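Reviewers of the previous submission asked for a worked example of the structure-prediction workflow described in the proposal, so we include one complete record here. The input consisted solely of the amino acid sequence. No template or homolog information was supplied to the procedure at any stage.
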Amino acid sequence: MWLLVLCLLTGPVIIAVGIREEAHQRRLRREGVTTEGRVVRHRVSRHQGSNSYFAVVGFTDAQGIRHEFEAKVSGVAGLPVGGRAPVRYLPGAPKTARIDGSRQRLWGLALPLLVGTAFTAAGLWGVLTGLPR
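From that input alone, the workflow returned the following structure tokens.
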């Protein structure tokens, strides 16, 4: 029973994260400042025997201040250390920076929506089929 409740609660929260990221991406495309960043390193996240790699990108804002941020989505294909990475951030808010690439935007939205939908569907399926509680 608790697993069904967890799925039904977690799924919509994950979907909301995806929707929030899409809203942020739209605002960045509308109002954002574009600059060029460089991949300074990759952070490795080890989880249950597998590794995920996240690009850490450094960039200089319009005031000449240097900042770093970590890509929200794992995967470093096309983002070697020292390589260029287009960056977009909201004026006066460099902490809002994201890699400005269609692949990163797609996965930032698609991954939470897919995972959230799967959790929600699993919970609903369990409720509707009367899985053991």
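Strands lie at 33-47, 50-60, 66-70, 84-90, 93-99. We consider this example representative of the routine output the project will generate in years two and three.
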